[in-house]
Amino acid sequence: MLENVKLEEAQELILDFIKPLPAESVPLLEALGRIICRDTFAAYDLPVCEQSAVDGFAVSASEKEKVHSYIVREFLKPGEMPVSSLNPGQAARVVTGGPAPVGTIAVVPYEITRLAGNQLHFTGDPVPGENIKPRGEDFRKGDLLARQGTVINPGLIGALAAFGKSEVAVYRRPKVAVLGMGQEIIPCQSMPLPGQIRDSNGPILAALAQRDGSQVTGIELVGDGDLTQIKAQLEKLLRQADIVLTTGGTASGECDQALRAVRQTGAKLLFWGVKIKPGSHSGAAVYDDKLIISLSGNPAACAAGYHLLAAPVLRLLQGLSPYPEYVTAVCTSSFLKKGGPRRFIQANLEINKEGLKVTIMPGQKSSMLRGLLNNGNALIDLPAGHPPLDAGAEVSVIILNAVR
Fold first, then answer.
1. How confident is the model at residue 404 (pLDDT cuts 50, 70, 90)?
2. How many angstroms separate the CA atoms of 196 and 116, rounded?
3. Where are the domains of the chain?
4. Paired strand residues for 358
5. How much is the pTM?
6. Which residues on adjacent β-strands are paired with residue 176?
7. 2-21+173-317: CATH architecture
8. Which of 189, 151, 187 is closest to 168 using CA atoms?
9. Nearest to 265 by CA among 241, 237, 240
């Protein structure tokens, strides 16, 4: 087991073990936000024939002679196909999105026409191609609709529906379970006795995992169980999930149980301890084909550890690039602490007319929840040994949940 590793080394050790999950087919209307698992192409031209772009009259005329009066051959209603093609001097009533008869050179909007019996009149000459949607204007047969790894959005759902797709093949959702360590931690709905603390990390991790496309199979606490009981509890969750996140008990104190519990299962330890702050007390292990990631019990450190260690795993399991998106932004506030290990600061990233701005959230202690409130959508990445951060400085920023 490696100890006190650099962040990138910890990420590499975890990700080397991960492969995307198998595919499953889901109903199209349940596919929003899922990750498409294969390249998808247009099966045919769309539209499949020339269509009218307006309500009006499709007209045909010879390029050599001007025609200002047309005989209307048919009046098409929505859903009807033309019976015959048009010859010069002939017209057909058409509707928006309806097929244009063969021989149509233009569609004249209804508002500028006058009809006397079956005789059509209008001022001016038709402009070839005007108000006609050509075949394949939207998609040509073989056009790429979506690459493997695309997050399905409403527009893609609409395109797939247009090609008759009622189901779509996507990567299976990762199954995540959460196990909270610490005899003093009780369920959030319980009334704490003196010395007890309501569980906030379990709900935080479950919410983050769900936001990142996972299915949460369970949130449990070890309570006052001994190592044998905790081992059984951990193994049960591993049978239910692809990845188990433990929180709390990751330090080396007498009462810290995480490392001892993971060892009890026989899992292969990848590392324990990461050179970051907050979240230095984090570790990972492999149990058969499952992954255990152990995170700090302090809420802010737990969340940071999730973003830096667990979220990349969930992305890769769904066929996405695991690595977070970095940008450079101007920091609008100061941070007076300096030195120490590489530090990640909870922040809010926004764009205005001056560019990307990032604001440090209040409550940066590892034990605090305040920094996780509001729109904390970024982490400022400060290198080890950094000086105090002044307002107006450019900083490197990780965008959290950038894909969705």
1. very low
2. 88
3. 2-21+173-317, 29-45+139-171, 51-133, 325-399
4. 331, 349
5. 0.88
6. 216, 243
7. 3-Layer(aba) Sandwich (3.40)
8. 151
9. 237
